Structures are given as C-alpha cells and as structure tokens.
Amino acid sequence: MKKDRFNNFDEEVRELVLTFENTILKGKSQFFDVDEMEIIIDYYFEVNDKHPLERAVQYAEELYPNSTTIRLRRAHLMMSHEQYSQALKVLNKMREAEPDNTDVAYSLGVANGAMGDSQKAIAYFKEAASDGWMLGRVYSNMAEEYYKLKDYDAALNCYRRAMESDSCDDVTIYNYYDVCYESGRIEQAVDYLDNYVKKNPYSREGWYCLGCGYRDLTLYEKAVDAFEYAIAIDKTYVDAYMALSQTQDYMGNTAEAVTTMLRVLDFCDDRAKVYRTIGSLYAREANYDTALSYFKKAVEENPADADACASLALCYLELGDTSTAVAKVNRALMLDEATPLDPNDGRGPHDAPGNPDVLCAAAMIYDAIGEYYKASEYFEQMIGTGLYAEHQCQLYTQFLFNHKVYDIVIQFGEESLEVYPHSSFYSTYLAASYFYTNRYNKARKMLPDVSPAMLAELCPELIEHPLLGPLVPADPFANSPENNNHHE
Q1: For residue range 42-75, what is the model confidence (pLDDT) as tens digits?
Q2: Cα–Cα distance between 206 and 163 in angstroms, integer?
Q3: Domain range for residue 444?
Q4: Residue 172 maps to a domain
Q5: pTM as predicted
Q6: pLDDT in tens, 205-216
Q7: Who contacts 322 (Cβ-Cβ below 8 Å, separation ≥6)?
C-alpha cells in the first residue's frame, strides 16, 4: 500500500498543498494569502520535495515581495542548497531592516554555523533565545556549535536546556547522550536521564538513551529494562530492538538476542539488516551453518546489500569454501563501489570512500588464500576511510604482525595507544614487535600493560628472556579454566 504523504499533517495542509499543485504547478492562477503560502512552503521543506518548494517560494515572492517571512524562507531555501554566503546577504539586509527580529537572528546563527563561525553563530542563537520561542531548537543548535568548539560542558548545558523545553526533538536527546559518551560523562548522562524519564515517562528516546548509558556501564539488566520501556511506548521503535538485542548478546543470551531481532521483521523497512544482524549473532557463536542461512536471507531481501554479501563471504570462508568466499567478497566490493556516499556518515574531507566492513572482509579473505599484497591493500583502504571500528584495527594489527611487518605494527600501535591509552592489546603487540626489532628498552616500557597470556603466544622468547621475562606481570587467568578463551 502506498504511504499517504500527508499522514503527519492536518487536513488544512493537505487541502492547501493539493490546491497549489492542481493550480500553480499546472500553470493556472490561484490566490493564496501569505499565511497559506507559508504553510505550503513549510510542507515542502518538511518533506524535502525540492522542485515544488522552489516554485512555491518563487510564487510567494511574486505575491508578497516585501514579506519578511517569505524572504526568510528564500534564505532557508538557499541554505538547503548550501548557498550560505548568498543566504547571509539576504539575512543581513533583513537584519538591517528589522534588528530585533529573532527569527532572522536564528537563521543568521544557522548560516554562520554552517560557514564555520561558531562563535558568531552562538551569539545569534543567544539573541534568538531571548523571546522564549522554540527554545528546544535554538538551544540544540547552540549546543552543536559549542560541541564544534569542544566546549563539552557548555554543549551539554545547552542540550539539557533544550530537553527541558516544550519544543525538544528526539535528535537532541540522542545528541546529548553522544556528547556525554564521547567526553567520558556516561555516569552523568545516566543520572540526568534517569530523572528525565521520571518527569517524561512517555519519552521513548529518553528511555532508549538511558538504556544506552546502562549498557555502556555494563549494567545490562537495567539496560534491558530501559529498552523494554522504550519498546512498550513504541512497538515499532527499531533502534530500541537493535540495542536490546545487542545487550542480550553482551549478556551471552544469543537465543534471546535472536528472538528480539525476529520481533522487528513485521514492521522494519530494512529486513536485510535484521537478517544480517541475526546472522552475525550466530557467526559469533561459530554456528556458521545457521549464520549462512540468515546471510542468504539478507541478500535475498536486498541483493545490493554490500554488507550482507561481505558477511556471507566471511561465512563461506569459515566453512572452508574459499572459492565461493572470494566470489562473494568480490561481489560485495563491486556493490560497495557502486554505492553513493552518504553525506551523513561522518566522513571528513580527507577520508577515502569505501565501506570499512566490506574492505576488512576482503582483506581477511585474501589473506586466508595467501594473497598478501591484495590483503594489505584492502586493509590500507579500510584505514583510509576513517570510519573503521576498533576490532578492525586489531585485525589489521594481527595481520601485520603475522606477516612480520613489525615496523608498521609499531607505527600503527603507537598511534592506536594515543586513542586507547594502556590498551593491553596494543601494548602486547608493541612489546613483541619492539623485542623482535631489538628495541628492548621500549619493549620493557610496555610490559606493565601487556596481556601475559597473549604475550606468551606472540613472543615466547621475551617471556623466557633472563632480564625482560621476570618483568612480565603474572597472568591472573593462568589457573582459570576460561584462560584459553580470555581476550581483551
């Protein structure tokens, strides 16, 4: 069934937009007052329908050339096309004519923020906040500018003020938690969100982010309860199901994690992602036959899903079918190359294109069949994307070490330790690489943070060294039955 594009709009909006489309867009004449034109323009902004939006703004300007609100929407249209300098010219003229117009001040804040002048943007947002209107939107934008300046305290304060307003949107709550996570304030976030949901018990985003906080503090049972509350509020809240499944997986409850994902299938638009996630759960349990069946379902749902093809390829590799693994990963690489870049994926101007998951899978498969140079090339492309995950960094480190490329292990490991200080994984690989390149003093400096069991496997010569060996910490898991499965 085709979705009604007016589902989230009232009947007045529907009638005005349809009248506009049946007259003006067809070359006929029709009168609309300025308020009606604002409603029509705002509808097209909301649904991001660019062609009729352009015509609506143009027609409104013909009818009301001196209207401040229509000129403001022209500036908004320019900004939607990233024509920020042109928008600033329009807004500055309006500012001269109406210096106390807080809508103009807000728009100047948005434009200056987009142009990279966060300080000026903040000043305009503060001015816009003076009338007490739409404070959620104003303070949320102000928080974004403080975040760009790395002033996390000010950013979080603005996010809280936005969340306490009547016009708070869900993105604000997500962003609040993200900044808390990034700045190491997870406990602070949990305390605030716990109080927030007490005051706003039907905020699905509040419960979801509270669940994320509990999960990231490894308070998994509390996280499960919070995610279940979010789902109780909105039975179709896909993100909450995904987070709940992930938490159940962390708790070792694979069967429950799979059941949670299966609950999503009835209303999730991206069924391929659901099947792919279930496949990954089984793959981590080394149940590759079952994982393979779900990865196949993911590809059937979306044959252009590069991630699903890459996961399928890795599954074939684990099952010993290397020829099919190579064919599938090559298919994934082709699909990835044909996928347009997502402007919202966080990629910086110097990052290379490519899906790190697909590139990592290609590297692992080509390494498994003995094609070192191809594997190395794909790992380097993965790192070049700037979007790789921590476990992919570790796979790259292991690859380099296994092929005795110790100098690059050292370079990459030293860079990684800046991001993950005192990481036993990188400290252990660095200690072994330093030892094998005769840099004993540097190896000694790594020893307090190494994993003894891992070091014994990577570099037994160091463990047996008469001077360095006694400096290696005792392995607390040495007598544990779980020792063979212990990892970082």
Answers
A1: 999 999 998 999 999 999 999 999 999 999 999 9
A2: 10
A3: 400-488
A4: no
A5: 0.81
A6: 999 999 999 999
A7: 316, 365, 368, 369
